[in-house]
Each structure stands twice: as C-alpha cells, then as structure tokens.
Specification:
alpha/beta; 13% strand; globular
Length: 393
Amino acid sequence: MELLKIADRDLLYPIIQGGMGVGISLFSLAGHVAGNGGMGIISSAQIGFREKDFDVNPIGANLRAIKTELDKARDLAKRIFENHFKPSLKSPKLLEKLKNYAPFIGFNIMVATNKYSEYVVEAVKAGADIIISGAGLPVDLPELVDRGMEKSGNSKRTCVAPIVSGRKSAKVILKMWERKYKTTADAVVIEGPLAGGHLGFSYEDLHKLGADIHPSVNYKRSEYDVEIKEIIEEVRLYEDKFGKKIPVFVAGGIYDKSDIEHVKSLGADGVQMGTRFVTTYECDAPDEYKQTYINASEDDIIITKSPVGMPGRAIRNDFIDRLSKGSIPIRHCHNCLSTSICDRKTIPYCITDALCSAANSDEGHALLFCGSNAYRATKLEHVSDIIKELTDR
C-alpha cells in the first residue's frame, strides 16, 4: 500500500472526515478518524460554544478552543494509532512504512466566518496539518497561513485545500493563488450537491440535478460526474505547472465503498465523508442528534433556506416546520458570520442558536444538518469498523 502524499505529509487512507459544526466534529471524532489512518477534521464553526464566556466573548472563546481541541485530538489520535491501530496490522511492510507516520489532523474554516483571518492564523499557530476552506473563495488563505507560520515557529507548513463545487471556482482560486502568491493548493475538495449543511449550489441547480427531492432516485449523477472530471482536469493543469501532486477528494453523497470506487474511477484520489461518521460512538454530537439520523426516512431529508439565503440540507423537525410559518426571534448575536453576509435585522433566525441547540440536545430549537444519505444509518458504529469496511483492512 502506498501512502498518499499531501505536500510533505503522508496520509494512510484517502478518507477525509468532513468538518461539521457546530460541535459535531471536535476532538473525539477527528482524533479517532486520524488515529485509524484517515484525516481527522475539526470544525472551527463556533468551536468555543461550551466555553463559559462564549455569550459575551464568542470570538475569543472560539480562538481559545482551536488549540484546546487540536491538542486533545492530537493526543487521542497518537494513543489510538500506537496502542490500537498499529498492533492490529499484520503486514510487516506496512508497519515499516508507518514507522514515522503521524496522524493527520486539521480544521475546516469557512471563509464566511467573521474574523476569518484570525481563525486561520490561530489554527496554524496551534499546529494544524491542513486547513480546508470553503463557504466563499479562500483567496487569501496562503498568505494567512504564512502569517500564522511566522508567529508559530513551526517547522512544517500547514497545508491548504480549497472546497469547490465547479470548475469555475477551482480555476478562480488556483489562478489567483498562482498570480498573487506563486503557489498552489496542496489538495482540493470537490463538494457535490448531495452534501450536508450549506451547499454551493443554487436552488435551481439542485433541482436540475435532481438533488433536492429523493436524490436516491432522482439524482443525475452522470451529469455532475462531468463536472467532477472537469475540476480534476483543471487541478491537473496546476500539478504540471508546479511539479507536485495535488490530491483531489470528492465529497457529498459518499457513504460506502462503492461510492469511493466510483469517484476514483473519475480520477479522484480520495473522498471526504461527513454523514457516515455522525452515527458513530466516537462522534462529538449528542446521542439525540445521532438518533435523528437513525430515525430519519428519506422523506425527512429536505433542502431548507439558511438565514443568509443559501440552500442547505437538513432533517425536517418541529423547528423547520415553525420556520415555514415565520421568523424565529433572535435571542443574542454571536458574531459568527461576516456582517456583509448576515444582517441581524432581516434574517429569519440565528443559525448559531439553531446549531448550538442541535449540539446541546435541544431538538425543539435545533437545525439538524445532514447529508443526503443520513436515512441510510440504522445503528451506531465505531469509527474503526467503518474505516475497516471502506479500506478492506
């Protein structure tokens, strides 16, 4: 087995665990995935929501929690890797390859985040292996990583990976990074229309692709497969320009091994999976949140409108039914999004309140983001068993 090279780091299995906020992928899930050979990703979205001063100092609480969560994830991943994962391997050749292997852990940081630059710098200072960034164009990400590196004194540079949904956005980002910084991506994540949470597609595009209602039957996979191939083609141009491998990971609707094999047949190097890891014992989400996935039917999974006007995929519940009848009063602003994106005077509800409610088992006030395959979950699983299933280890 060959390790996948991402810049100067090795990844054993080409599986990224998607960053899910608020509070769904923190140190426990990221640590267990990384400890079992995948890439563990912590969501920075309101990461400090359990800090005592979160209501009065949300940004300070979040920035503080970045290092706390990463340190805990790193320690957990190392213990799992050395004490459980490696002893389970039977191949002397693979054990030799993993002699100097370090579990791979990073952050998902949304461009739309208020004080985005501070979050990136803090994650780099904390020692993140990678920053995956979408919900906007991360045009300044390389510069921000350099700024963080200067302040950290770390010897290894944090890798950068933009999230894109089409060739156009991939081209804009990679072209700008080449022109402004004489550099390129270390990896690219393609997030398709079957993903959970906020989606990088219009309502019209989701409908045209059959990704809005019953995508298991209506989704026109072959049409988006063309887009995936074109994005990969664009990325390969920059591989040639910079003389380096840029692994491409496909996200959205990835649930089992056949999904992985399909995107690899298109030229992808790996996958990013969020929904599949939610219903694990090790996921940071509360049991009530996990149970909503297990209880959900495909009819329960809908496209809803976020406060900032973007479509998002979630599980229908009383909260969403109440929204259909009118706005829900905002109790407190947590400064989560840029003011150019979120206008407190006009938004129908506070997304931080709704997502924090989900992470705090308050389903009556919760927005329950999920991917299109959430209804396929029937039980809780262990992260290690999922990765074994996906990799035939």
